[in-house]
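Subject: sequence -> structure tokens, single chain

Hey, anyone have a minute? Need the predicted structure for the following. Not urgent.
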Amino acid sequence: MRRVGIPNSGPIDTSPARGRTATPRGLSDKARWYLPAALVTDAVGVALPVGIVFDATFQPHPVLCAVTAAAAWLIVQTARRRYTQRALGESRSGLSVVYDWMVLLGVLAVVRALLGEHSEPSVALLALTPGLLLTTACRKLTYRHLLASRREAHAVRRILVIGEPSAADYVVDQLAARTDHEYVVVGAIPVGLANLECGAPVAARLESLAPARPSADSGAVLTAARELGADLVLVAPGPRMAGERLRQLSWAVHDAGIPLAVLPGLTDVAVRRVELTSAAGLTLLHISPPLRRGVQVSLKEVLDRAGAAVGLLLLSPLFGLIAAAIRLGSKGPVFYQQIRHGVNCVPFTMWKFRTMVTDADDRKPELASANESDGLMFKMRRDPRVTRVGRILRRCSLDELPQLINVLRGEMSLVGPRPPLPEEVARYDEVALRRLSVKPGLTGLWQVSGRSDLSWDETLQLDLRYVDNWTLTSDVDVMARTFRAVVDGRGAY
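Reply:
Had a minute. Here:
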């Protein structure tokens, strides 16, 4: 590690804060192939299918229609700023692509009316669909590559954190805990004399009380920002850094051409739930409540039960094969029933395919010392109670399929937090109990984020994020990611 001296702060480590191991490189260092890959995929992905389908179905002007559709798609994407350096690779969600694609349909409908073009609308819709799929695939590819780059501290924004020591510690620790974002802390400026515990380099210190001359604050901040090459100044407001002091600091930072961000003190609140207003010179953040009733909730209920019914019908042959394998593999019943807690702590009987020996529950106390979980759940990577067939079922998540019965009965949802055991709920605090504000799910953020490899704190954080921010579109995204997680098998034991 390279160490330098900063006046009044002693030797400090100027490498990135924990979580980044390489010298941080800016957003301009994103892979050069992102833009050409996006442009080629979008242009060819629309033009080629339109040309082929129009020619095969004898629609008028297939080449002209292909070129027009491709040009319109590029224009729509450009207008939506999808090709900017800041946006490239930043989104893995297909929802924004769907929105852009619907805009494309509207643009082409207007062009069609103006030019008097008479191609069959259903044929045009079919021909444009591959473009939607290819653009989505390209964005997911660049997103995964960008995540891998950021684990090496490439394509990031270097930030300088300012705040009272406890607030600065919290911000740095939160950002350092994960690498799926663009920020890497290169320094911190505490307000006051208390020590930082996060390990970030102390670039300077600000007085506890606002100085008589605002330039004392701005001079220290701007000097540190220039020396560290900070791309952003992030302020964590507090009693000693707020109001007029924060206002004058923002003026100085902006006048120096450095972007500034202010931490509002919220965690795990989706951006869509936040509305910014002002009153009497005060900036107000309005937080919309989580969805607990209304059209989306009713529609989720309908889709859950309909999806469970269709799933049980289509998977019935597979159920038969699994049942036969379980009976041949070990003595005991095919299904395993267990009491779990659902929404509002209401207990219900959860169904699973049996993956353990019949006396597994009686043997659990013997294995307590081998528990690999750091929280309230019991996890054991090589549990001796699991049968050979059961290990395969768990690896493929097939043991969970009978929970479609619980979904059909309204006790569970297709997507939601995992249903806990009564002994786990008995040890929940008020924060953990919030997991039970919605129906438990057959799958959820826990499954697409590592399953049993997650710590209890990580599992709880994911569940609370889902409970407070779920939407139907996020459920669709989780379902799509579940398939990849099941195929990958990571964390399934």
